[in-house]
Each structure stands twice: as structure tokens, then as C-alpha cells.
Amino acid sequence: MASELYGEALKKAQQELADCDAAVDELERKRAKLRQTIVSLQSLMGVQVEQDQSLTDAILMTIRATPGYSRCSDVVRRLHDMGYRGHGRSVATILSRLAKTGQIVHDTSPDHATGYTWRTDTTKGERLEAKKTLAKKSGK
Predict the structure, then answer these.
(1) To bridge 79 with a disulfide, which of 27, 48, 84, 135 should be the other Cys (CB 3.0-4.6 Å)?
(2) Does 24 have pLDDT greater than 90?
(3) Interatomic CA distance for residues 95 and 115, integer angstroms
(4) Which sign, positive or negative, has the C-alpha torsion 72, 76, 82, 84?
(5) In order of start, what are the domains of the chain with their CATH numbers?
(6) How far is 59 from 78, CA to CA, in rounded Å?
């Protein structure tokens, strides 16, 4: 009897923790997107902004702020909008390194394009299953 109650309490606590983690991830993504927007708008306005973060940090922020997958060219374009110029080859190298170290994921998107996405706690099998479900919903 007591172990059943503890089991139910454990499941409830685990679900609540998962919900909190999801909320934190969403808030961090929103925060990164807002930072990216602010830097881009400052650049468009001609406001001289010192790059207070490394190119690697800017790439991580860009990947985190973008839902789904981003190609290297997408990342370069977003960085250019933020005032980072002439870093195409460096971006490709950094993206590759970040994927090798597991900070981001290099994979194939549901539309079969190769790209990078923010690392989550989901496994590759779970991502594949999610892709299949998404493809079914979109009628592909």
C-alpha cells in the first residue's frame, strides 16, 4: 500500500520535473531568440556594438534560438545579421566541432536536409520516431 503511494508520488514528481525542464528549455530558447533579435536590430540601426561574445557563443545562441534544423548557410546569414562578417568557413568548422563534442546535433531534418539543431535529452531513436510522426501528419 505504502509502496504504491510512493510509486504514484514518484511518477508525479518525475512528470513535474520533466514539465519544468521543458519550460526552462523553452524560456532559454526564447531568451536566445530575443538576444539575437536585439543584436540584429542594433546592427541594422548602425549602432556600434562590441561583440561581447565569441563566434562560438554566437553560433550556439543562433542554433538554440532557431527551432528545428539550421543549415550552415542559415547560421552564417543570421550571424551576418548580428554583425559578424566574413566567417563562413569558420562557422562550418565550429558547427562540425560542436556536433562532434555533442553540444549540438548534426542530423537530417524531416525534409531530408542536413542541418544542426540544439541538443536535447532525446535519443536518436526518439528523434527518428518524432520525424516519422511529423511526416505522417504532413502527409509525406
Answers:
(1) 84
(2) no
(3) 10
(4) positive
(5) 2-137 (1.10.10.10)
(6) 9
Confidence band (pLDDT; 50, 70, 90) for 93? Answer: very high
Q: 88, 93, 37: which is closest to 61 by C-alpha?
A: 37
Tell me the pLDDT tens digit for each residue of 53-62. 788 988 998 8
Q: Count Cβ atoms below 10 Å from residue 76 Cβ, excluding itself.
A: 23
Assigned C-alpha cell, 42: 542594433
**Residue 80 is which amino acid?**
H
Report residue 54: phi and psi, to 5°.
-70, 165
Give residue 95's pLDDT band: very low, low, confident or very high (50, 70, 90). Answer: very high
**Grid coordinates given for 114:** 542536413
Residue of 58, 54, 23 whose CA lies nearest to 38: 58
d(CA 97, CA 77): 19
Average pLDDT over residues 37-54: 77
Helices 72-81, 2-44: crossing angle, 10 deg rounding: 60
Question: What's the predicted TM-score (pTM) here?
Answer: 0.63
Element (H, E) at 115: strand 114-118
